[in-house]
Amino acid sequence: MTYHRQLNAVPPIPAATELPTGFVADTLARPLQELRISLTDRCNFRCIYCMPEESFGKDHVFLPQSALLSFEEITRIARIFVAHGVRKIRLTGGEPLLRKHIENLIEMLAQLKTPDGRDIELALTTNGSLLARKAQSMKDAGLNRVTVSLDSLDDAIFKRMNGAGFPVSDVLHGLDAALAAGIGPIKVNMVVKGGVNDREIVHMARHFKGSPFILRFIEYMDAGTSNNWKVDEVIPSAEVVRRIAAHMPLEAINSNHKGETAERWRYRDGSGEIGVVSSVTRAFCRDCARARISTVGVLYTCLFSASGHDLRALMRYGKSDLEISSVIAHLWRLRADRYSELRGMATKGMEREVEKIEMSYIGG
User: How far apart are CA 245 and CA 202, in angstroms?
Assistant: First the structure.
């Protein structure tokens, strides 16, 4: 059984429906503030930490178009989440730029307003391969931020990691196009895998130091089950900071807001900052305020979930916005996820202990 065919429960409608108040918190007092929506399970990369070729080869069966949420369904569900307190929506994949006419969806989402009339923040995560041709139209449609994955500046290493032979130059061209279009801030994410690209840490830092781009280093995570994750291949964020600081002195700075995933460090000479995302060695579950909607409209309350709640079924069964809103509030109040914290208590031996949804299906 492939990951996108796993059965997910159709959540029951609570006996007493309720109007959203703009705030809902889970069992650990974490508010619902951010929504990540996966637009497609397809990707033109085969990154070794996400969609490795051996698991997602030419015979892999992707979802049919009819299974995906329509733009109208995405906007409807996003509107309900905004009424519950969501202030930021991030579009993910797979590779979201493979979804045709994505600009139309961005324009639709950009019309959403918080209960007090403020705009929401619209962000997108991409591998950058199609960004050069899409950046201006997405900015014109209302996109605020973009995060681009780039795991090496060395062409041979990058091609090995993306598994599809894409050159670094294509991604760098996409970054320049996004900057020229006025999208910002622009973040660059480097997943660090020991023995593969960790020698590129200082090179990446030096390249982006003093640039308009914010570089972030992400610990290699056990997202999904197809990447054969091993804890021995994790380079701790503390080691990343140590290596960079040995060449370019750093100092810690405060986070932008509570719940921010990255710890921030700035160069002491004032030439910018870096971030480190320590999802393995320093779990940040206690401040996680993110919900995720899969390509087929399943709600997941954690990146490492094994199953979710089928909101698409509720929409296509004709349930009202109020009924769906009540379901979401109920499910969030029941939320107790803290997988990374629990993994941190017993990291060894957890490599294959829990089967999880693939990251390409649920988004990063």
Answer: 9
Edge-to-edge strands, sheet with 309-310: 250-253, 263-267, 273-277, 213-219, 186-192, 145-149, 121-126, 88-92, 34-38, 290-293, 298-300, 309-310
pTM here is 0.91
CA distance linking residue 24 with residue 143, whole number of Å: 26
Which domains does the chain show, CATH number per domain?
3-362 (3.20.20.70)
Write out pLDDT tens, residues 99-138: 999 999 999 999 999 999 999 999 999 999 999 999 999 9
User: 245: closest CA among 237, 254, 234?
Assistant: 237
Tell me whether residue 360 is exposed, middle or buried, using C-beta atoms within 10 angstroms of its C-beta: 0 to 12, 13 to 18, 19 or more. buried
Residue 363's alpha-carbon distances to 59, 116, 296, in angstroms, are: 22, 29, 12
Q: Parallel, antiparallel, or unpaired for β 250-253 and 309-310?
A: unpaired
